Amino acid sequence: IKTKLSHEDAFSKYLIGQGAKINKPYGWQIKILSPESFLRKIGPVLEKRLTESKFRGLTRMLKMNFWKYELGLWFEDGKLVKVEQTSDAGRILGMNPYATIQLFLGFRSREDLEYAYPDFYVRDGLGELIDVLFPRKPGYIHYCY
User: Fold this and answer.
1) Which domain holds residue 74?
2) Sign of the torsion angle spanned by Cα atoms 102, 119, 68, 77
3) Which domain CATH number covers 96?
4) Phi, then psi, of 61 in degrees rounded to 5
5) Has residue 41 been placed in a domain?
6) Among residues 38, 40, 43, which one has the least CA distance to residue 58?
7) For residue 140, which of 45, 4, 14 has the smallest C-alpha distance?
8) Which of 30, 62, 94, 131 has the CB geometry, 3.0–4.6 Å to 121, for a possible disulfide?
9) Residue 142, domain member (yes or no)
């Protein structure tokens, strides 16, 4: 019997406790076509994570360099007020476009990605902030094939 459930839900944990086998999830084949739109959409989640951290009330702009373009995330008093492309050259957050999807979706941590991808980097002591905004979390993508 295949359950097609996350390994983190209560029922799956029960089945595992009864001796069920865990299959590795199939590789993620996800592409975020517009990181700008995606980050706007998850803005309330990012704001909640800030509120529950030492970064409550954050006011600053984060520049994410995606090789061909940069995105600026403007936070004011802990609220994400603007996400848009910027032309300013910045090399503080180097976002490998392929690896960043794993960060945004919680599949890999910032440290995992910095280790695996030399062109994924977080400088100027922003690692902890990125960890708060994009923590590693269990997830499951249901696929229908």
Assistant:
1) 30-133
2) positive
3) 3.30.1050
4) -110, 135
5) yes
6) 43
7) 4
8) 94
9) no
Residue 141 has pLDDT above 80, yes or no: no
CB 104 within 8 A of CB 133: no
The string of pLDDT tens digits covering residues 39-51 is: 999 999 999 999 9
Ramachandran angles phi, psi of 82, nearest 5°: -160, 140
Mean pLDDT of all residues in 92-110: 90
Q: Which residues of 43-64 are buried (b: 16+ CB within 10 A; e: fewer)?
A: beebbebbeebebeebeeebbb
Q: Has residue 21 been placed in a domain? A: no
The type of residue at 18 is: Q
Q: Distances from the Cα of 138 to the Cαs of 8, 10, 17, 29, 65, in angstroms?
A: 7, 13, 18, 16, 26
Structure tokens belonging to residue 12: 């799956």
How confident is the model at residue 67, as a pLDDT? 84
* String of DSSP letters for 105-135: TTSS-HHHHHHH-TT-EE-TT-HHHHHHHS-
Structural domain count, the chain: 1
